[in-house]
Amino acid sequence: MKVLAVHPSALMYTKVFLRLEPLGMELVAGAARNAGHDVRIIDLQAETHEDYWELIEEFQPDAVCYSGSYLANVPEILDLCRETRYRFPLVFQFIGGHSVSFIAKDVLELSEGTVNCILKGEGDATVGLLLDAVQNGKDILEVPGTVTLDGEGPPPIFVKSLDEVRPARDLLRHRNKYFIGTLDPAASIEFARGCPWDCTFCSAWTFYGRSYRTASPQVIADELEEIKEPGIFIVDDVAFVHEEHGMAIANEIKKRGIKKEYYLETRADVLLRNKEVFKVWSEIGLSYIFIGMEAVDEEGLKQFRKRVSLDKNFEALEYARSLGLIVAINIIADPSWDRARFEAVRQWCLEIPDIVNISVTTPYPGTEIWHKEARRLTTRDYRLFDIQHAVLPTTLPLPEFYEELVKTQQVLNTKHMGWQALKDTAGIAVNLLKNGQTNFVKMLWKFNSVFNPDLQLADHQRPARYLMPMQPDAVDNIDRNDLYVHGPGGRKTRALDDATETFVDKTRMGEEV
């Protein structure tokens, strides 16, 4: 079969700070190609809808699959499905990815028959099975993870080994368009998949059933050697949970003389436990580290069940700085914040040298806060669920909330964007421009055109074609089994030694380690 894989357009935040290689879509495309199908990819972060229609006219695919990893992309995907069905009535259309796995029935009903099925769970594990079933006229509900308006197939399954799934990087048409910070261009790579923690605001653990699986250091090094981009974004939800694995990858990189620059995300407690790993990585090219603090007080940390003390967070920041790393942190703005709270956060963030990102508390399907807060939603417009819009009642009037939010973001970004940022990174910028890379330099002045309180407020007034269904009353006692996409498999699904497993359990329960 001829298969077109489609990644939707950029979200608000990614229009400024980064544009990441669609690694999940490349993995699905690679699995489909390995199953014998002819595959193309189009990424609407870097191309246009006109490009999509030109490609589909030229390629004439038998099937089109869409990446539904982000909730805010659901309307765009559904519009494309409707128009594609109208123009090409015989094409088989399906959607996979993180977010749609939690809301499969809702999306199918909104599609009004234009989507044939949702493929829940790890798409690279089952896309070949689905395409073979379609090609051979078999019942697609026999494929694990499939959902149609007529019912559900068997539960989704994991890929047998992360070593066996390789992304079809060669199918991406504009590889120079992807960057994160000064890593321009940057490719993305996966060292491990899943998360063994259980934060209330996150759906990584509910998607993967609290599993944690790793790729072998040799396969990772093979892939790094093949990647042409000098910058590498490590996509793991929490990098280097397992000390031995992180060190083994570093040793393999050193042995082969691989020269790259890396950006990763991790937890403060993991950084402090595995200091030597991060020290070694700082010596082989790690330059950026993102630490999801989420809150600047103990009450906020408790709310998100982060269970890392403020002292540990600050200690981790200090250690990362001591390694010469550029440190970025995330703070979640709660709808309950008033002007005084915003001002306190601004002052705290200005006192530290690190890059600070402010996002907005957003209940997502698959998270615990979704089940507790969904009934209180002030909007059911999928487009607003992008962590930059308030979808819960705010203490301040909404216009004032956005004024304070953007003011806070503007103050913080002034430290790292515009002329000051260009001055600090002049050498890097000149080299990038010499090589024809303009993503980072263009980003420095885009903030005001994207982050604007009037525009954010106006987004709430736009007519919404696709609405979330009304939600039931909040649930205080949540059955965790109802949250999972991949059912929990317990200890055997986590590639951790006993000491690391104990560490994870203790930090999940809020114990000092």
Automatic annotation (TrEMBL):
GO MF entry, a single one: methyltransferase activity
GO biological process, one term: methylation
Keywords: Iron, Iron-sulfur, Metal-binding, Methyltransferase, S-adenosyl-L-methionine, Transferase
Keyword check for Lyase: no
Pfam families linked to this entry: B12-binding, Radical_SAM
Superkingdom of origin: Bacteria
Residue span(s) of domain Radical SAM core: 181-395
Cofactor: [4Fe-4S] cluster
Gene3D superfamilies hit by this protein: Aldolase class I, Cobalamin-binding domain
Ranges of residues in domain B12-binding: 8-141
SUPFAM superfamilies: Cobalamin (vitamin B12)-binding domain (SSF52242), Radical SAM enzymes (SSF102114)
NCBIfam families named among the record's database cross-references: HpnR_B12_rSAM (TIGR04367)
Protein name listed in UniProt: Hopanoid C-3 methylase HpnR
Protein's organism: Acetobacter lambici
